[in-house]
Design a protein that fits this description.
Metallo-beta-lactamase, Chain A, 5 strands, single chain, alpha/beta, globular, 5-stranded mixed beta sheet, about 140 residues
Length: about 140
């Protein structure tokens, strides 16, 4: 038996529906947004203690047992998606990275310009099956 999410609306997606949604979306349905306070805590990045730092959307920097793992790094704006808050740290400020984990290659989780900036970190990349070379 295969799992099926009965709430999955992606089956009704089509380019036409997405264009209709973008062109004719009503202000009535828009939720009010507010910006989050971005706290720059560079001193924490040099700490040897374990931490988890949210960098925006699905991007996290995790330090555990003196290993640094960067999850789904999207450090800037991407096509059709402008960050609502700036990235709290530049790629240089993140320090040494041991592992860069890419969960999947959707545009909001895989940003090639961010990946290219991180190649000098000499990190081990963990990617989905059959995604080959990233650079």
């Amino acid at each position: 038996m295969r799992y099926s999410n009965h709430l999955d609306s992606s089956k009704a997606l089509s380019l036409v529906n997405v264009i209709k949604w973008q062109l004719f979306k009503s202000r009535h349905f828009r939720q009010e947004t507010s910006s989050l306070l971005v706290m720059n805590q560079k001193d924490k990045l040099s700490s040897k203690k374990d931490f988890i730092c949210w960098l925006g959307h699905a991007s996290f920097l995790i330090q555990i047992d003196k290993k640094r793992i960067l999850l789904d790094p999207v450090l800037g704006d991407i096509p059709f998606y402008k960050r609502l808050i700036p990235s709290p740290y530049s790629h240089q400020e993140l320090g040494e990275i041991d592992y860069i984990f890419i969960s999947h290659t959707h545009y909001d989780h895989f940003d090639k310009p961010s990946i290219q900036k991180l190649l000098d970190k000499n990190a081990t990349f963990i990617t989905p099956f059959r995604h080959g070379v990233l650079s």
